Amino acid sequence: MQSCEFVKLITNRIRRRIDPVFVMTIQASGKNSTERAVNALPAPEEKAGYVQAMFDAIAPRYDLLNSVLSVRMHHGWRRVAADKAQLKSGGVALDICTGTGDLALELARRAGAKGLVIGSDFSAPMLQLGEKKKAQRSVPALEFVLADALKLPFPENAFDAVTVAFGIRNVADVEAGIREMARVTTPDGKVVILEFNSPRNPVFAALYQWYSFNVLPRLGGLISGRRAAYNYLPSSVKAFYSREEIKEMMERAGLKNVTITDLTFGSVVVHRGVKSK
Fold first, then answer.
1. Of 112, 130, 136, 214, which shows the fewest CB atoms inside 10 Å?
2. What is the tens place of the pLDDT at every residue in 6-52?
3. Can you give the residue range of the structural domain that contains 121?
């Protein structure tokens, strides 16, 4: 039996057998945790500075925590995003909010020695770790640039693909960030957004929310020493736009044929759009 079929089978059995009162208890617990955590989100005018300082602080443990908290699934999610970018050998791509460069490295592997991938971020400590990965893996076609996602230092129509993995949610103005991604993409080029979202399955959604607000902050805080950063993560996901709203923003930015792909029961979503000519 395929693994995805097995997961669906188990979920269906849980849905039939789980005590409705138990689900309601989890949902109530999640709501209480949500209220507490959302109150901790920075004010819109303080978001950029808050997020930059947060990532500067957690950079040394960032990759470890990504693997622990996602059970290493984040690598597979990024491979799906790279597939959606459809970057050919010799192509040119930009990965904004690149962090330590995992998606940029995946894109560089596909672009090959004759291509070029740029990973941009406004956190210097994150980019320093990305540079170390680049050196360890001998990836010549990858460059890192310190840049604000809302003010990209690149001309219009410069990249065959522009991507972002788990970063657009942290941009102070999400729609402006999407417009900026579209601006620097070539006509017929791809814009790909990989981001957390709310699961569609009600049982999984209840369990996911309980984990996000009760387990993740404790575990993330224990490993990183920065619990506030891992209170911010589920809070920002909870407050983020729906799949449909992100799709509409992409269309308003001049992207067509926008597709939505759910991963891991919809807890992670890939949006892909094509820039109009």
1. 136
2. 445 444 543 444 444 434 444 454 455 445 455 569 988 999 999 99
3. 41-200+246-275
